[in-house]
């Protein structure tokens, strides 16, 4: 996509000059909160939404001028979109029929696609006779039957319950690996994106905020906005007390000191407001003697099997979530320590407040 914009109404851009490229064999997850433009990007790619400006290319061929069916994409959506009166087999054959593939070949290709998603024995059933997960597998078989170069998926798992979602997620990954597919996948679920994608693209208000491998984005989110999507559940404001030349920063967190490391390019001045992002698993209770510690009180303890998920509140009133194997109880006084490298400090965003979730 070259500088693609899409405006549904005057002055509001769902996509704002978005540049996005996809290499053969990549599994790219488009990630971001509701309303950031993920579905619009996919719909523009598919030809289901017109572009307001910009262009889309496959290699040297311009394709945004082609109708949907000529773009050669397989598509899978959140709501399965199966024809209720057609058998599973006929549903999968449908795309091939539209492409005028002869009857015998149609049947053979549809059967192969159903085998791939392990639904062969259900081929004569109607969609309503299948579970949600099975219906979504039919939709995937239908997308794969046309032998697409690129598969576009828009939240294909979000209508399924938790266990089915994980099962089908693995299935999608297997198909991707076995068939050497190229996939553009829309999701708002970071775990889904991290487990499936070879590259993440985080959108914010119709623009690209960050792209990188799951590991890069997870360890080094470029902004507090991205961090919020990558499991950094502790996101709060603090004041820069003393910025050091090596990038470490002494912060004032409502009256207590916290040592962090600056992640933005912008240099900080003493007194500047900053955003801080910390993952719950990076916070420990009663760390080594002498480590910087935040005095806090345990508020809520949730049992999560091996670990406890704990909500604490610092003496200055800041809520900090953590995970621990140590038994603690509500009301207990604790000292929290966090390795300074895992206290990510971002300069306050300038003027980008649209699309934050
Ligand atoms: N058909 C439409 N008409 C008008 N505005 C629309 C339409 N579809 C989307 N929008 C607006 O465009 C923006 C981007 O929407 P889009 O559906 O692409 O976001 P998204 O990131 O996919 O969100 P979600 O995760 O909720 O589906 C939003 O502000 C939305 O309200």
Description:
The model is unreliable at 353-357 (pLDDT under 50). The longest helix is centred in the middle third of the chain and has 18 residues, at 162-179. The two termini are 25 Å apart. The strands form five sheets. The chain has a six-stranded mixed beta sheet with strand order 7-8-9-3-10-11, sandwiched between helices. Strands 12-13-14-21-15 form a five-stranded mixed beta barrel. 24% of the residues lie in helices and 34% in strands. It has eight helices and 21 strands. Helix 2 (88-98) crosses helix 3, helix 2 packs parallel to helix 4 (132-145) and helix 3 (103-116) crosses helix 4 (132-145). It is α+β, with helices and mostly antiparallel strands and 357 residues long. Strand 12 and strand 13 form a beta hairpin. The protein has two domains: 2-224, Rossmann fold, CATH 3.40.50; 236-347, Nucleic acid-binding proteins (OB fold (Dihydrolipoamide Acetyltransferase, E2P)). Adenosine-5'-triphosphate (ATP) binds next to helix 1. Adenosine-5'-triphosphate binds next to helix 1.
Give me the number of helical elements. 8
What Rg, in angstroms, do the CA atoms define? 24 Å
Q: Which blocks of ≥5 consecutive residues have pLDDT under 50?
A: 353-357
CATH homology-level superfamily of the largest domain: P-loop containing nucleotide triphosphate hydrolases
Average pLDDT for all residues:
90
Bound molecules: adenosine-5'-triphosphate
Query: What is the N-to-C order of secondary-structure elements (H for helix, E for strand)?
Result: EEEHEEEEHHHEHEHEEHHEEEEEEEEEE
User: What is the name of the CATH architecture of the largest domain?
Assistant: 3-Layer(aba) Sandwich
């Amino acid at each position: 996509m070259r500088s693609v914009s899409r405006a549904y109404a005057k002055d509001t851009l769902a996509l704002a000059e978005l540049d996005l490229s996809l290499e053969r064999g990549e599994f790219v997850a488009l990630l971001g909160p509701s309303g950031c433009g993920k579905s619009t990007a996919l719909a523009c790619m598919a030809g289901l939404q017109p572009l307001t400006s910009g262009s889309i290319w496959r290699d040297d061929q311009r394709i945004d001028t082609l109708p949907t069916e000529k773009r050669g994409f397989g598509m899978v959506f959140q709501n399965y979109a199966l024809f209720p009166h057609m058998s599973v087999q006929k549903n999968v054959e449908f795309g091939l029929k539209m492409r005028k593939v002869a009857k015998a070949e149609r049947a053979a290709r549809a059967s192969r696609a159903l085998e791939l998603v392990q639904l062969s024995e259900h081929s004569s059933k109607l969609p309503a006779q299948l579970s949600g997960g099975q219906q979504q597998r039919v939709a995937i078989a239908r997308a794969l039957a046309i032998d697409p170069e690129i598969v576009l998926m828009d939240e294909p798992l979000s209508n399924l319950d938790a266990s089915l979602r994980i099962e089908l997620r693995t299935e999608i990954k297997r198909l991707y690996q076995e068939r050497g597919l190229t996939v553009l996948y829309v999701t708002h679920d970071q775990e889904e994106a991290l487990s499936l994608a070879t590259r993440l693209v985080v959108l914010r208000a119709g623009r690209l905020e960050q792209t990188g491998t799951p590991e890069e984005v997870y360890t080094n989110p470029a902004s507090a906005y991205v961090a919020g999507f990558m499991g950094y559940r502790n996101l709060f404001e603090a004041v820069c007390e003393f910025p050091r030349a090596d990038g470490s920063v002494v912060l004032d967190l409502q009256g207590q000191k916290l040592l962090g490391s600056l992640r933005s390019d912008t240099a900080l001045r003493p007194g500047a407001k900053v955003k801080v992002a910390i993952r719950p698993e990076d916070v420990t209770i009663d760390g080594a003697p002498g480590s910087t510690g935040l005095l806090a009180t345990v508020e809520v303890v949730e049992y999560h099997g091996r670990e406890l998920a704990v909500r604490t509140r610092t003496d200055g009133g800041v809520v900090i979530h953590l995970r621990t194997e140590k038994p603690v109880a509500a009301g207990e006084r604790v000292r929290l320590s966090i390795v300074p490298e895992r206290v990510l400090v971002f300069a306050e965003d300038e003027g980008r407040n649209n699309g934050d979730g």
